[in-house]
Amino acid sequence: MAEEVEDRAKRVFGDHYEKAAAFAALLTEHGVERGLIGPREVDRLWERHLLNSAVIAELLPEGSRVVDVGSGAGLPGLPLAIARPDLDLTLLEPMVRRVAWLTECVEALGLDVTVLRGRAEEGPVRDRLSGSDVVTARAVAPLDRLAGWCLPLLRPGGRLVALKGESAEEELTRDAEAVRRAGGVRPRVITCGGDVLELPTTVVLVERDDQASGRDGSRRRRKDR
Question: Where does the chain cross the membrane (predicted)?
């Protein structure tokens, strides 16, 4: 890794940089062969994936209950868990082989993170994860579907933080009505990490309607794990 990128990574991860480097090493060694990242991604792992994911930590309040939907290779969930050990984080992933990968990483890195197999739209998953403060998602689905899956997991006033690319504004315009129907309010596009990334992370931020009520809107205590 170039010295300049390493310096930026240390700024983002601070005292937890070594764990971030260990996760990068795991992805470098196993990511391509296990179908988690493409071959061309290895050389830009820090800038495009780890830092791109970790910088959204600035949007997450202290001690938040966070669900990373469709966690896949562990992005953005694992960089967030490393950078912010105060978070109560669940990695939600439907594919068995990726659940195995996430479990291996959590154990190898010594993280206090829950790995759950399932889909956000499934009843048992909603029952278990409802009332969360934040739901994150990266390269999972178009915004209309993402809102329908993720907003029911949030408490009223909770945030969907969807990492998007250049199409963010276009998606938000196209899917604004679907987001509203799903209970989303105050949708907007923002960027994170402008001080450490050459290309800041583009995020669509949607809040769950404050008027949402019912059992899936109740706040749960941090569970003992």
Answer: none
